[in-house]
Amino acid sequence: MIIRRASDDDAEALTALITAAYAPYQHLGLPPVAEGVADDITRHYVWVAEVAGVVRGGIVLIMSGDAYIANLAVHPDAGGQGIGSALISKACDLARCAGFEEIGLATHVGMTETQAFYRRLGWIETGHEGLRAYFKKDL
């Protein structure tokens, strides 16, 4: 697995990956999570995980006032390979190096497997607002 900064050339593959990753959760009425990937690559810290030359995961980190993960996606065919954990580790390292003491994220309250994944990695749930569950991790 190679973790690298996303380039403009990755926008199409990353958009398709995000769409596939969130497809099982569309019944929850998620917002359009795959929109604006090209803009995210230009404006934020976007990293991808490649396996055998194919983009299999991606993460969007925003560091503006606070550090937070705006999106994390792993292709369903690549689950269980440590891709999500590796991408989160990269985001945490970047935020720590930028001087942040904690990092946050939000997920849908109905995505219980995702919440369990974050808890296994040491994230602490900090509250709910509507359909969002908020988590943070000390760096």
From TrEMBL:
Q: Which UniProt keywords apply?
A: Acyltransferase, Transferase
Q: Which InterPro entries match?
A: Acyl_CoA_acyltransferase, Bact_Acetyltransf, GNAT_dom
By its UniProt entry, which Gene3D superfamilies does this protein fall under? 3.40.630.30
Q: Write the lineage as a comma-separated list.
A: Bacteria, Pseudomonadati, Pseudomonadota, Alphaproteobacteria, Rhodobacterales
Q: Which organism is it from?
A: Yoonia litorea
Task: Identify one Pfam family in the record.
Answer: Acetyltransf_1
Q: What is this protein called?
A: N-acetylglutamate synthase, GNAT family
Q: Name one GO molecular function term.
A: acyltransferase activity, transferring groups other than amino-acyl groups
**SUPFAM superfamilies reported for this sequence:** Acyl-CoA N-acyltransferases (Nat)
Annotated N-acetyltransferase domain ranges read 1-139
